[in-house]
Amino acid sequence: MGLGRGQSPLLMALVPLLTCLQTGMSLEHISYVPQLSSATLGGRLTQSTFTLEQPRGQFSHPSISDSDAIWLVVAHSNATQKFTAPQKVEDTPVPADFPQGGYYLTLRASRALYPGGQPSNQLWVLRVGNDTRCSPRTRGCNHPLPGPGPYRVKFLVMSDRGPTAETEWSSETRLQQAEVLQAAPGPQTAGTVVIIAILSVLLAILLAALLTLLIFTWYDTCGSTPISGPGELVFVRKYDTHHMSRPSAVGAS
């Protein structure tokens, strides 16, 4: 009896460990590698997004139900080894955790959105990082990617009891980078010198013509300006001279 009492705390300590091992062993492995979309698709890679093919028909295993959530895990290429599947939906990392944690979950779906069967003429793709309106602290937000990468992704299936299945990690994906145009070093060619000389001469001619036009306009305006305007009044003083004799009155004798 004393031995049984001594083993009870030990068994209680082993229960969480056994539960974790059981959860890890029950995680089904799906032999599917996420792929980038066709190279002919416009916008396949941008500075903040990339486009994947939809994993159609990859989640038909009996252990996966229609109500299970299928998440896309986005991770830095060097953070895939430390990825740990969350045990509850409430624990799923968000894009705001990406700089420190190295991965987050986005694009929640169900297997009804990824049916199998023959491909149709429609284009079935997933654009990662395409939502600029959601907050990076919102669970499932498909926020634009913060840099050129490289990134790796995989799909994770979660039920109410925790993770149930996962796919392979994709290969590395690098986004486009903005190119800065710089002047080519070294001496200028003869053609460049000729073009610069011609442009300089044309600019000098244009400036001379503009200066001539300004001078002509100023001279014409000043030469034709009247001394007094039409609204001005000119006053003339009347002088009565004394040396002029008055004419004699008519009829004087």
From the spread of the alpha carbons, the general shape counts as elongated
How much helix, percentage-wise, in residues?
10-25%
Rg computed from alpha carbons, rounded to a whole number of angstroms: 44 Å
The residue-averaged pLDDT reads 77
The largest β sheet comes out as:
5 strands, mixed
Helix/strand order, N-terminal first: HEEEHEEEEH
Number of strands: 7
Distance between the termini: 179 Å
Beta-strand content bin: 15-25%
Task: Describe this entry's structure for a reader.
The chain is an alpha+beta fold and 253 residues long. The protein has helices spanning 2-25, 98-101, 190-223, and strands at 28-29, 50-53, 69-76, 103-109, 125-128, 151-159, 162-166. Mean pLDDT is 77; it is low at 1-7, 10-25, 225-236 and 249-253. The longest helix has 34 residues, at 190-223. It is elongated. The strands form two sheets. It has a five-stranded mixed beta sheet with strand order 1-7-6-3-4. The protein has a two-stranded antiparallel ribbon with strand order 2-5.
Structural topology:
Elements: H1 2-25, E1 28-29, E2 50-53, E3 69-76, H2 98-101, E4 103-109, E5 125-128, E6 151-159, E7 162-166, H3 190-223
Parallel strand pairs: 1-7
Antiparallel strand pairs: 2-5, 3-4, 3-6, 6-7
Give a quick precis of the structure:
The protein is 25% helix and 15% strand.
